[in-house]
Design a protein that fits this description.
This protein starts with 13 loop residues before the first strand and ends with a strand. The N terminus and C terminus are likely disordered. It has a five-stranded mixed sheet. A four-stranded mixed sheet has the order 2-14-16-15. It has a four-stranded mixed sheet with strand order 4-5-3-13, covered by helices on one side. With 457 residues, it is of the alpha/beta class. α1 packs parallel to α7, α6 packs parallel to α7 and α10 runs parallel beside α12. 28% of the residues lie in helices and 25% in strands. It contains 14 helices and 26 strands. The radius of gyration is 22 Å and the shape is elongated. The longest helix has 13 residues.
Length: 457
Amino acid sequence: MVYEGNKKSYLKSQNLKIIGRSTLRGEVKISGAKNSALVLLAASLLTEEKIILDNVPLLTDIEKMGNILKSLGVKLKTKNHQLIIDSTNIMIKELPFELVNGLRASFFCIGALLAKFGEASIPLPGGCNIGKRPINEHISGLKALGAKIIIEKEIVKAKLAGNKSRLNGAHIRLNCPSVGATETLIMAASLAEGRTVIENAAREPEIQDLCQMLNKMGAKIYDSGKETIIIDGVKKLHGCSHKVIPDRIEAGTFLIAAAATSSSITVSPVIPNHLEAVLNKLEESGSKITKKGNSISIKGNNIKSVDIKTAPFPGFPTDLQAPFMALMTIAKGKSKISETIFENRMNHVELLNQMGSSITLKNNVAQINGVNELEGMTLVGSDLRSSAALVIAALISRKVSHIYGLEHLDRGYENFEFKLSQLGAQITRESSKKTVPCSKYEGSNLSKKSIPAIKVA
């Protein structure tokens, strides 16, 4: 195992007990970016030499990706937040369904395996239930690079067409700037023969981090962070050392929590321009933001309603839509939040309304009338970012809340409750004798004697 978390096998029986009306104060250390570390782990398959990754967050998603690599014969050594990856003795075989099904990022391995070995067989991906997130952009792009792909019984099987020994460079235009497809195609094109041009590419910082590491490995990638990326394929990539960028979503979550609780905190290390859209909305909603080097300080006060619309980077990130909605529930006035990335990422609206908020939803657009306060409850989250929103809502609520579904929260936040408690939040992790089967608690009128749960998709 890459990461042996504390009682991870009992996560469904654990909850966070949160006493509301907290005020936060101090500085919080931001971990390495989960979404970057996952794709960098996949990219390590492109070389037979060692990759040393620093600033790797200790998360269950990282553990899962590590176990997927180990199933291929990769050797992993971990020390604190450093991971040494040795792919010398990799074996090409179908990835185990039970590992891939729980982690969508595992599908990114298809580009690296296909480019390095000429074939790959990977089950269709799983992950949070927040929308369809189709892989057709990945498939069409790999076909353009010369791959022959068939899907049989939920298994994607890819191999080089004909007698070719390498993929061929191609001109690819994505129908939408998919982050996963952009990353998959960059990895595949890095070892292709000739030049590949990807138009309408995603521009997220995690893609820029991937390109930086690949270039350290000997790749020739130009213009990452722009809408058109150019890759000149090379025959071989070598090992390198690389430090994962800070997690902008974790930093944004803590900043939103501070704004919601009218608190003053500092997040560090961060790359401020990765959070520009979020910082602008926080300032617009009444918070004072101060940027200094690799740190951001916030002073929350008099929350005002603002409208947001999620968009690909550099727009407002969809991963912070749910936390920001928790903030807007107690803002003065009316606000509108539009989700444009995923079609199933608004089910937390019902839950926030159970806590006393006033939100109406139509066609992935939430209209929010700010209220004076929320009421603490016992809740179950069923995806990563909505679970974080529940914690923020609990911090600003009257009375006590119990948040279940920590198997989702721990996928993307390292030591979340510890970091919050260090800032002054009254939050503790508790264990109960029974696990919480989420499917059992989809109703909203539940007895307090049971472990209540309102499912957040």
